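Good morning,

Attaching, inline, the backbone tokens for the sequence recovery test we're adding to the shared suite. The designed sequence is right after.
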């Protein structure tokens, strides 16, 4: 019983910080953030009804939820001339004129 009291006090003391839902700034240069951006871009392109693919122009905010793999990111994307199922979307030029679109 006496051993359980320090364990319980430790869990009470550590519980709130571990369960925090606070987002903290994350470096845009980490490999895990780059993988997260690539995943977000893929999911965005798949969810769009638009037949053209979008590619990343720049990253605004980059944050990660403490003690988790949840990211909060602001991405600026532009519509390309390539279809979303083309191989090399990163090297596709952006659309110009009336078809130009940024999100």
């Amino acid at each position: 019983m006496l051993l359980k009291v320090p364990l319980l006090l430790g869990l009470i003391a550590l519980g709130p910080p571990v369960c925090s839902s606070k987002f903290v700034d994350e470096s845009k240069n980490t490999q895990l953030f780059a993988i997260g951006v690539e995943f977000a871009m893929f999911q965005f392109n798949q969810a769009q009804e638009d037949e053209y693919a979008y590619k990343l122009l720049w990253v605004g905010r980059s944050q990660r939820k403490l003690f988790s793999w949840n990211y909060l990111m602001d991405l600026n994307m532009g519509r390309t001339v390539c279809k979303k199922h083309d191989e090399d979307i990163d090297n596709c030029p952006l659309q110009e004129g009336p078809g130009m679109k940024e999100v």
